[in-house]
Backbone:
Protein backbone atom coordinates (compact mmCIF):
# COMPACT_ATOMS: atom_id res chain seq x y z
CA UNK A 1 0.00 0.00 0.00
CA UNK A 2 1.03 3.59 -0.50
CA UNK A 3 2.96 4.91 2.48
CA UNK A 4 0.92 7.04 4.85
CA UNK A 5 -2.47 5.70 3.81
CA UNK A 6 -2.45 2.31 5.56
CA UNK A 7 -4.62 3.46 8.46
CA UNK A 8 -7.26 5.31 6.41
CA UNK A 9 -7.81 3.17 3.34
CA UNK A 10 -11.42 2.00 3.08
CA UNK A 11 -11.89 -1.70 2.38
CA UNK A 12 -11.65 -2.80 -1.27
CA UNK A 13 -9.35 0.11 -2.12
CA UNK A 14 -6.16 -1.93 -1.67
CA UNK A 15 -5.63 -2.97 -5.33
CA UNK A 16 -5.40 0.65 -6.42
CA UNK A 17 -2.78 1.47 -3.78
CA UNK A 18 -0.55 -1.59 -4.12
CA UNK A 19 3.05 -0.93 -5.12
CA UNK A 20 2.37 -2.10 -8.69
CA UNK A 21 -1.25 -0.84 -8.79
CA UNK A 22 -4.09 -2.97 -10.15
CA UNK A 23 -2.23 -3.80 -13.36
CA UNK A 24 -3.05 -2.70 -16.87
CA UNK A 25 -6.69 -2.08 -17.68
CA UNK A 26 -8.21 -4.45 -20.22
CA UNK A 27 -7.70 -2.84 -23.63
CA UNK A 28 -10.05 -3.38 -26.57
CA UNK A 29 -8.65 -2.42 -29.96
CA UNK A 30 -11.48 -0.62 -31.71
CA UNK A 31 -11.40 0.51 -35.37
CA UNK A 32 -10.98 4.14 -34.33
CA UNK A 33 -9.42 5.94 -31.40
CA UNK A 34 -11.35 6.14 -28.15
CA UNK A 35 -10.06 9.34 -26.61
CA UNK A 36 -11.56 11.94 -24.29
CA UNK A 37 -12.81 14.12 -27.14
CA UNK A 38 -14.68 11.23 -28.75
CA UNK A 39 -15.96 9.83 -25.46
CA UNK A 40 -16.95 13.03 -23.64
CA UNK A 41 -17.90 15.45 -26.40
CA UNK A 42 -18.40 18.88 -24.81
CA UNK A 43 -18.14 17.27 -21.37
CA UNK A 44 -21.28 18.89 -19.96
CA UNK A 45 -23.54 15.86 -19.46
CA UNK A 46 -26.37 17.87 -21.01
CA UNK A 47 -29.73 16.07 -20.99
CA UNK A 48 -28.62 13.19 -18.77
CA UNK A 49 -30.76 12.48 -15.70
CA UNK A 50 -28.64 11.40 -12.72
CA UNK A 51 -30.32 10.14 -9.56
CA UNK A 52 -28.57 10.54 -6.22
CA UNK A 53 -30.07 7.78 -4.06
CA UNK A 54 -28.99 8.93 -0.64
CA UNK A 55 -29.88 11.22 2.29
CA UNK A 56 -31.38 13.92 0.07
CA UNK A 57 -29.72 16.81 -1.75
CA UNK A 58 -29.47 20.46 -0.72
CA UNK A 59 -30.44 22.16 -3.97
CA UNK A 60 -29.36 25.56 -2.63
CA UNK A 61 -25.76 24.55 -2.01
CA UNK A 62 -23.63 26.62 -4.42
CA UNK A 63 -21.75 23.51 -5.56
CA UNK A 64 -24.96 21.60 -6.36
CA UNK A 65 -26.61 24.10 -8.66
CA UNK A 66 -30.21 22.96 -8.31
CA UNK A 67 -32.24 19.75 -8.34
CA UNK A 68 -34.64 18.87 -11.16
CA UNK A 69 -36.87 16.42 -9.27
CA UNK A 70 -37.33 14.94 -5.82
CA UNK A 71 -38.82 11.77 -4.36
CA UNK A 72 -38.49 10.51 -0.79
CA UNK A 73 -39.14 6.92 0.24
CA UNK A 74 -40.76 7.12 3.66
CA UNK A 75 -41.94 4.47 6.11
CA UNK A 76 -45.72 4.11 6.23
CA UNK A 77 -47.22 1.10 8.00
CA UNK A 78 -50.59 1.82 6.40
CA UNK A 79 -49.40 0.70 2.96
CA UNK A 80 -48.95 -2.86 1.69
CA UNK A 81 -45.19 -2.39 1.34
CA UNK A 82 -44.77 -0.37 4.53
CA UNK A 83 -43.41 2.48 2.39
CA UNK A 84 -44.77 5.51 0.59
CA UNK A 85 -43.33 7.87 -2.01
CA UNK A 86 -43.40 11.59 -1.24
CA UNK A 87 -42.84 13.96 -4.14
CA UNK A 88 -41.77 17.56 -3.84
CA UNK A 89 -38.69 19.37 -2.53
CA UNK A 90 -36.99 17.93 0.50
CA UNK A 91 -33.88 18.63 2.58
CA UNK A 92 -30.69 16.63 2.91
CA UNK A 93 -30.95 15.05 6.35
CA UNK A 94 -27.23 14.41 6.76
CA UNK A 95 -25.02 15.99 4.08
CA UNK A 96 -23.92 12.82 2.32
CA UNK A 97 -26.24 13.17 -0.67
CA UNK A 98 -25.25 16.80 -1.18
CA UNK A 99 -21.59 15.78 -1.27
CA UNK A 100 -22.25 13.20 -3.98
CA UNK A 101 -24.46 15.52 -6.02
CA UNK A 102 -21.85 18.29 -6.03
CA UNK A 103 -19.14 15.92 -7.26
CA UNK A 104 -21.33 14.87 -10.19
CA UNK A 105 -22.14 18.52 -10.94
CA UNK A 106 -18.43 19.43 -10.90
CA UNK A 107 -17.67 16.89 -13.61
CA UNK A 108 -20.86 17.17 -15.68
CA UNK A 109 -22.27 20.66 -15.03
CA UNK A 110 -25.41 20.36 -17.15
CA UNK A 111 -26.84 17.08 -15.87
CA UNK A 112 -30.35 16.98 -14.43
CA UNK A 113 -29.95 15.94 -10.81
CA UNK A 114 -32.74 13.93 -9.19
CA UNK A 115 -32.73 13.49 -5.41
CA UNK A 116 -34.08 10.13 -4.24
CA UNK A 117 -34.00 10.21 -0.45
CA UNK A 118 -33.89 6.81 1.26
CA UNK A 119 -31.66 7.59 4.28
CA UNK A 120 -32.45 9.45 7.49
CA UNK A 121 -30.64 11.82 9.85
CA UNK A 122 -28.33 9.09 11.14
CA UNK A 123 -27.47 8.00 7.57
CA UNK A 124 -29.44 4.82 8.19
CA UNK A 125 -32.34 3.39 6.24
CA UNK A 126 -34.05 0.14 5.42
CA UNK A 127 -32.91 -2.06 2.57
CA UNK A 128 -36.53 -2.06 1.43
CA UNK A 129 -36.53 1.72 1.00
CA UNK A 130 -33.18 1.47 -0.75
CA UNK A 131 -34.56 -1.10 -3.21
CA UNK A 132 -37.74 0.92 -3.74
CA UNK A 133 -35.68 3.97 -4.59
CA UNK A 134 -33.61 2.09 -7.17
CA UNK A 135 -36.73 0.61 -8.77
CA UNK A 136 -38.35 4.05 -8.95
CA UNK A 137 -35.28 5.33 -10.81
CA UNK A 138 -35.36 2.51 -13.34
CA UNK A 139 -39.03 3.14 -14.06
CA UNK A 140 -38.87 6.93 -14.26
CA UNK A 141 -36.39 7.84 -16.96
CA UNK A 142 -33.17 8.00 -14.96
CA UNK A 143 -30.05 7.46 -17.06
CA UNK A 144 -27.51 6.94 -14.26
CA UNK A 145 -28.10 5.97 -10.63
CA UNK A 146 -25.47 6.91 -8.05
CA UNK A 147 -25.51 4.58 -5.03
CA UNK A 148 -22.98 5.68 -2.43
CA UNK A 149 -24.46 3.11 -0.09
CA UNK A 150 -25.03 -0.63 0.18
CA UNK A 151 -26.56 -3.35 2.31
CA UNK A 152 -24.75 -6.31 3.87
CA UNK A 153 -27.93 -8.35 4.36
CA UNK A 154 -27.83 -11.66 2.48
CA UNK A 155 -31.61 -11.78 2.20
CA UNK A 156 -31.52 -8.71 -0.04
CA UNK A 157 -29.00 -10.21 -2.46
CA UNK A 158 -31.60 -11.71 -4.80
CA UNK A 159 -33.91 -8.65 -4.91
CA UNK A 160 -30.98 -6.39 -5.73
CA UNK A 161 -29.65 -8.86 -8.26
CA UNK A 162 -32.99 -8.59 -10.04
CA UNK A 163 -32.86 -4.79 -9.87
CA UNK A 164 -29.37 -4.76 -11.35
CA UNK A 165 -30.58 -6.94 -14.22
CA UNK A 166 -33.60 -4.68 -14.70
CA UNK A 167 -31.34 -1.62 -14.82
CA UNK A 168 -29.17 -3.24 -17.47
CA UNK A 169 -32.17 -4.21 -19.58
CA UNK A 170 -33.34 -0.58 -19.45
CA UNK A 171 -29.85 0.76 -20.26
CA UNK A 172 -29.69 2.46 -16.87
CA UNK A 173 -26.09 2.74 -15.66
CA UNK A 174 -25.84 1.86 -11.98
CA UNK A 175 -22.78 3.14 -10.09
CA UNK A 176 -22.28 1.70 -6.61
CA UNK A 177 -19.68 2.43 -3.95
CA UNK A 178 -18.10 -0.54 -2.23
CA UNK A 179 -18.61 -0.73 1.54
CA UNK A 180 -15.83 0.90 3.56
CA UNK A 181 -15.70 -2.26 5.69
CA UNK A 182 -14.59 -5.75 4.50
CA UNK A 183 -18.03 -7.35 4.41
CA UNK A 184 -20.83 -8.03 1.95
CA UNK A 185 -21.58 -4.96 -0.13
CA UNK A 186 -24.83 -5.37 -2.07
CA UNK A 187 -25.32 -4.47 -4.91
CA UNK A 188 -21.79 -3.04 -5.23
CA UNK A 189 -20.20 -6.49 -5.49
CA UNK A 190 -22.37 -7.52 -8.46
CA UNK A 191 -20.72 -7.57 -11.88
CA UNK A 192 -23.64 -5.71 -13.49
CA UNK A 193 -22.86 -2.41 -11.74
CA UNK A 194 -19.97 0.03 -11.90
CA UNK A 195 -18.41 -0.88 -8.53
CA UNK A 196 -16.12 1.82 -7.14
CA UNK A 197 -13.47 2.18 -4.42
CA UNK A 198 -10.89 4.84 -3.59
CA UNK A 199 -7.85 5.24 -5.86
CA UNK A 200 -4.74 7.40 -5.34
CA UNK A 201 -4.85 11.17 -5.56
CA UNK A 202 -7.56 13.82 -5.51
CA UNK A 203 -7.81 14.52 -9.25
CA UNK A 204 -11.42 13.77 -10.24
CA UNK A 205 -10.47 13.74 -13.92
CA UNK A 206 -8.74 10.39 -13.35
CA UNK A 207 -10.54 7.04 -13.16
CA UNK A 208 -8.72 3.75 -12.64
CA UNK A 209 -9.69 0.31 -13.92
CA UNK A 210 -9.18 -2.87 -11.90
CA UNK A 211 -9.51 -5.93 -14.17
CA UNK A 212 -9.62 -8.29 -11.18
CA UNK A 213 -12.57 -6.77 -9.28
CA UNK A 214 -14.75 -6.84 -7.30
CA UNK A 215 -14.08 -3.09 -7.17
CA UNK A 216 -13.80 -2.61 -10.91
CA UNK A 217 -13.22 1.14 -10.80
CA UNK A 218 -11.18 3.48 -8.65
CA UNK A 219 -11.44 7.24 -8.25
CA UNK A 220 -10.50 10.04 -5.87
CA UNK A 221 -12.01 9.51 -2.43
CA UNK A 222 -9.24 9.93 0.15
CA UNK A 223 -8.82 13.29 1.89
CA UNK A 224 -11.11 14.99 -0.62
CA UNK A 225 -13.06 18.22 -0.22
CA UNK A 226 -16.81 17.73 -0.61
CA UNK A 227 -19.94 19.85 -0.25
CA UNK A 228 -21.90 19.51 2.99
CA UNK A 229 -24.87 21.01 4.80
CA UNK A 230 -25.31 24.75 5.23
CA UNK A 231 -23.33 25.64 2.12
CA UNK A 232 -20.17 24.31 3.74
CA UNK A 233 -17.44 21.95 2.58
CA UNK A 234 -15.57 19.33 4.57
CA UNK A 235 -12.54 17.13 3.96
CA UNK A 236 -13.29 13.43 4.27
CA UNK A 237 -12.51 9.92 3.04
CA UNK A 238 -14.69 7.12 1.73
CA UNK A 239 -15.66 5.00 -1.23
CA UNK A 240 -18.90 7.00 -1.16
CA UNK A 241 -17.10 9.98 -2.65
CA UNK A 242 -15.27 7.98 -5.32
CA UNK A 243 -18.51 6.63 -6.80
CA UNK A 244 -19.92 10.00 -7.97
CA UNK A 245 -16.63 10.67 -9.75
CA UNK A 246 -17.33 7.65 -11.95
CA UNK A 247 -20.95 8.79 -12.26
CA UNK A 248 -19.79 12.17 -13.55
CA UNK A 249 -17.56 10.60 -16.18
CA UNK A 250 -20.37 8.31 -17.28
CA UNK A 251 -22.73 11.28 -17.56
CA UNK A 252 -20.35 12.82 -20.07
CA UNK A 253 -20.24 9.56 -22.03
CA UNK A 254 -24.02 9.05 -21.97
CA UNK A 255 -24.66 12.63 -23.10
CA UNK A 256 -22.34 12.17 -26.07
CA UNK A 257 -23.50 8.62 -26.87
CA UNK A 258 -27.19 8.35 -25.90
CA UNK A 259 -28.47 4.86 -25.24
CA UNK A 260 -25.02 3.39 -24.63
CA UNK A 261 -25.29 0.07 -22.83
CA UNK A 262 -23.67 -0.85 -19.56
CA UNK A 263 -21.03 -3.04 -21.17
CA UNK A 264 -20.29 -0.49 -23.91
CA UNK A 265 -19.87 2.26 -21.31
CA UNK A 266 -17.51 0.04 -19.34
CA UNK A 267 -15.44 -0.48 -22.48
CA UNK A 268 -15.24 3.24 -23.21
CA UNK A 269 -14.41 4.16 -19.62
CA UNK A 270 -11.76 1.43 -19.53
CA UNK A 271 -10.07 2.93 -22.59
CA UNK A 272 -9.85 6.26 -20.77
CA UNK A 273 -8.60 4.84 -17.46
CA UNK A 274 -5.51 6.36 -15.88
CA UNK A 275 -3.85 2.94 -16.02
CA UNK A 276 -4.89 2.05 -19.58
CA UNK A 277 -1.95 1.13 -21.85
CA UNK A 278 -0.91 3.99 -24.10
CA UNK A 279 -0.71 1.70 -27.15
Residues:
Amino acid sequence: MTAGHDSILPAWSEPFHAADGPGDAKYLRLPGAVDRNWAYGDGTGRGVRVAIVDSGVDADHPLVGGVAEYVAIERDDRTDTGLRLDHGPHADLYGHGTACAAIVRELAPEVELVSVRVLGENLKGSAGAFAEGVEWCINHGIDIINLSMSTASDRWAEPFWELVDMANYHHVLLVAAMNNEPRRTIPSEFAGVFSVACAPGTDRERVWSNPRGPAEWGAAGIDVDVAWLGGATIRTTGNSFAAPVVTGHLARIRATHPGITNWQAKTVLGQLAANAPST
